[in-house]
Amino acid sequence: MNKHGAGRPSGLCGQGKDAASYHVLSFLLGAALPTALLFYLASDRLGEGLSSISPSSWGSSRTPTTQQLAGATDHTAPTSPTSQGQESEFAELAELLPRVATDDDRTVILTSVNEAFARPDSLLGLFRESFRAGEGTEHLLDHVLVVAVDAMAFVHCKAVHPHCYRLEVDSATYLSSESSFLSAAYVELVWAKLSLQQRVLELGYNFLFTDVDVVWLRNPFRHISVYPDMTTSSDIFHGDANSLDNWPNTGFYYVKATNRTVEMLRRWRAARRRFPPNHEQAIFNQIKHELAADLGVRIQFLDTARSPASAGSSTVTWARVHHARQLLLRAR
């Protein structure tokens, strides 16, 4: 995926933290795993971040005001009927989610892996370690559900992580090896994750999906507003977080569980037939205007305007592994 670096310095830690950030990044880069991008987030939305909804879970003392909550409609849990087929397709998911999600706002962090990404000394281990090494992120690891798309990925996951889910993917494509961007296996995997995400919303749980190659250096929930139905990272950002002219990057996005977001996921998946053989990110970019017009879905884009090399390590909230090397060089 084409990624762009981003945002104003977050101010989440002072310059005295640079040394600590250097050591964190030194450890993370020991795996030397491929991918791209750094995200830099601004501090101007801290007062209305998702952390204000769930202080006990996300480590904030803020609580939402009546005016904040009054600005959002249809924020109740979805009431979509559950079919027997859905229960069968996603067996045990309803029992697993309460053990993973936060108690107060029913939010779960989702990531997905195949065997190549889950085996020892691969991306899953690096992903998990970033929560422990990051600033104020270790407690978030308790709320991560790792979705395994093949049998060996599930075995590897269970060996290191308490919350794993085996997603059966109906595909003739071999899914266990590393998948290059837009390969047949890659496309199957990204569409499979959407079906699971729709079911998570139907069960009344908010989710933040993150690619497994994203390392968490600081708490990103502090930068997610309470107002939108969906908050997504960007491939192209034009300066206005609420503008649909921005291009989404679906390697990192948050969705609230409402009736309209369930319908949004349903239409998103259905649009695959309209735009074959494209992947889910490109198709979402094609249909975002109609989703907003037809459903009233509010989409907000995270500012990704600055390049990876343009900020110091004290500004980074999360990063993809490969370009973290640039950050390490600046920290020195």
UniProtKB/TrEMBL annotation:
<keyword id="KW-1133">Transmembrane helix</keyword>
<feature type="compositionally biased region" description="Polar residues">
    <location>
        <begin position="62"/>
        <end position="87"/>
    </location>
</feature>
<keyword id="KW-0472">Membrane</keyword>
<feature type="region of interest" description="Disordered">
    <location>
        <begin position="53"/>
        <end position="87"/>
    </location>
</feature>
<dbReference type="GO" id="GO:0006265">
    <property type="term" value="P:DNA topological change"/>
</dbReference>
<dbReference type="GO" id="GO:0003690">
    <property type="term" value="F:double-stranded DNA binding"/>
</dbReference>
<dbReference type="InterPro" id="IPR018126">
    <property type="entry name" value="SASP_alpha/beta-type_CS"/>
</dbReference>
<keyword id="KW-0812">Transmembrane</keyword>
<protein>
    <submittedName>
        <fullName>Regulatory protein</fullName>
    </submittedName>
</protein>
<dbReference type="InterPro" id="IPR044821">
    <property type="entry name" value="At1g28695/At4g15970-like"/>
</dbReference>
<dbReference type="Pfam" id="PF03407">
    <property type="entry name" value="Nucleotid_trans"/>
</dbReference>
<feature type="domain" description="Nucleotide-diphospho-sugar transferase">
    <location>
        <begin position="139"/>
        <end position="307"/>
    </location>
</feature>
<dbReference type="InterPro" id="IPR005069">
    <property type="entry name" value="Nucl-diP-sugar_transferase"/>
</dbReference>
<feature type="transmembrane region" description="Helical">
    <location>
        <begin position="20"/>
        <end position="42"/>
    </location>
</feature>
